[in-house]
Design goal:
This protein is an alpha+beta fold. It has helices spanning 58-69, 94-98; strands spanning 6-7, 15-16, 34-41, 48-54, 75-82. The radius of gyration is 24 Å and the shape is elongated.
Length: 121
């Protein structure tokens, strides 16, 4: 028999559905914000996006991200970012945003005079 105050939806164990204290105030679990999770591995120098999760507040998001995405001790640092706070470019803007800078001659080595005493460039 299941307890109506807990849910195991998503396969991550029993999660309280009522009276969860958060920094965001009381809200039902279905209204918890979505967080994007980034983990830096032991041998990596950068954080890599590993997935998403819902959490009641930032602290819960970090704890849950640790439990879900670093279960095998593979991370040294975790970033969690509320998905609604992420600012991104649109794929429709890819041409003007990422077009090569062919018209900027100063970015090409042919723009500069190379002295005779420079052996390799």
């Amino acid at each position: 028999m299941s307890d109506p105050d807990y849910s195991a939806d998503g396969g991550h164990g029993a999660v309280p559905l009522k009276n969860v204290p958060t920094g965001l105030g009381e809200r039902p679990r279905g209204e918890w914000p979505l967080y994007e999770v980034f983990v830096r591995g032991k041998r990596g120098l950068n954080h890599v996006h590993v997935g998403s999760l819902h959490a009641a507040d930032d602290e819960m998001a970090v704890r849950n991200a640790r439990d879900v995405y670093t279960r095998r001790n593979e991370g040294v640092s975790i970033w969690v970012v509320r998905a609604d706070l992420v600012v991104a470019s649109s794929p429709d803007e890819k041409d003007p945003m990422f077009a090569p800078a062919g018209d900027k001659v100063y970015r090409h080595p042919t723009f500069y005079d190379i002295g005779d005493d420079v052996p390799h460039m």
